[in-house]
Amino acid sequence: MRTREVGATGRHVGAIGLGCMGMSWAYAESTRNDAASRDVVRAAVDGGVTFIDTADVYGAGHNETLVGEALAGLRDTVFLATKAGLVVDDLPAKSMYRDGSPAHLRAAVDASLKRLNTDHIDLWYLHRVDDAVPLTESWAAMADMVRAGKVRHLGLSEVTVQQAAAAAAVHPVTAIQSELSLWTREALGHSPTGASASAPAIAGGGAIDVGDVVGWCAANGAAFVPFAPLGRGFLTGAIDTTTQFEEGDLRAGNPRFTSAARAANVRIVDTVRAVATRHGVTPAQVAIAWTMAQGPHVIPIPGTRRLGHLADNVGAADVTLTAADLAELDAAPTAVGTRY
Questions:
Q1: Which residues, 6 or more positions from 37, have their beta carbon under 8 angstroms from its beta carbon?
Q2: Going by DSSP bridges, is the β-strand pair 79-84/12-14 parallel, antiparallel, or unpaired?
Q3: Which of 65, 161, 165, 191 has its CA 20 to 30 A from that of 263?
Q4: Measured at the alpha carbon of residue 255, what is the angle toward residues 253 and 260, in degrees to the nearest 5?
Q5: What is the pTM (predicted TM-score) of this model?
Q6: Which letter does DSSP use for residue 216 in this model?
Q7: Domain ranges for the chain
Q8: 264 vs 71, 256, 337, 338, CA distance in Å?
Q9: Active site positions, annotated
């Protein structure tokens, strides 16, 4: 697989990474299979996917433990990223709160190292900014962990351009992870479509203009890491108005996945499918390739628990979209429904 550098670290990873959240929670948890998920992680690494992403909040530590087990004997071959700053309040309900206090972050990094069975984390993100703690205070505490040798590089998740700049004044920002896909484009400087009053803590608050975060990363030597580049599965074309989500699935109560929203949003999938047909590839590969086309510093991390889907996702690294393709995709309709 082609590679891309993670910020200005000098570390090159496969151009497509692996997001591991869904292996532990959020989607169809009744079908969770830890052994199969570990096999997917190992197969990904064997296939050149060397950027592995997890977080301490995913399954209240379960995902980090799973990833640590899967990487046994492979740790030195991967660039391992995890996150802290969100704390599970109620696991079945997926209720959580933010804690960016230095005390919490210091304890969180040690807990992550233990679960991941490693002596260092390559990239450690502040998962969400805690409004009760100045960002610079949280960031300074995280920088202390770099100096202590527990962490190599620091990242931010779901921040504005202004927040990124404030953090960078204290310590270099190696990467920013935010949602980006053909139906979620706020990180490119697009105006948000609104916010749900019932948005959970993980959503990052209300609808605000975050600014051109992707552009900020390019100008400041940081990687941009899109999560959910497949629109939580919708952009693959595998989800339609008849699809049923089990109780507890993140999509079951998501405004973009109501029957009415899905019926409207199929127009986006139709655009993706048209481009995919011309190239003889899958809609998933086009959706991922579109994120990669936003800049050489962009490293998408599609998640999956299936080997077949992994192969499909990895194949996106070989898809080259033309200027005409990109113009057609950029003109796709705006998504109906907020993302949380």
A1: 20, 23, 66, 70, 305
A2: unpaired
A3: 191
A4: 110
A5: 0.95
A6: H
A7: 3-231+293-319
A8: 41, 10, 10, 13
A9: 58
